[in-house]
Design brief:
By secondary structure, the chain is mainly β. Helix content is 7%, strand content 32%.
Length: 99
């Protein structure tokens, strides 16, 4: 029974990180508080694991794409943020039909 219950884990939605790439537009944070563009994805020197660097459209960030003197991407001061995959949601663009 243990093997069947463990085989159910992992089924379901594809992780957000597998859909989000550098250059993608994303919503950041709880209740989608900020809109931005992914500028970095990968490991960093400031913490273990995979991180996403996002250039936010508005000045609600914490940096300019650099942390502790290491530049991961470039943007205006206060427009950069680093976060884990779970804090991002891809922007879904709808195309409008022209008659």
């Amino acid at each position: 029974m243990t093997s069947s219950s463990s085989s159910r884990k992992g089924k379901g939605k594809q992780p957000v990180a597998n859909r989000i790439k550098v250059g993608d537009r994303v919503w950041f944070g709880a209740q989608s508080k900020g809109l931005g563009t992914v500028r970095f994805r990968g490991p960093t020197k400031f913490a273990k694991g995979e991180w996403f660097g996002v250039e936010l459209d508005h000045k609600i960030g914490k940096n300019n794409g650099s942390v502790d003197g290491v530049s991961y991407f470039e943007c205006r001061a206060g427009h950069g943020i680093f976060c884990r995959e779970g804090r991002l949601q891809p922007v879904i663009l709808r195309t409008q039909r022209i008659s």
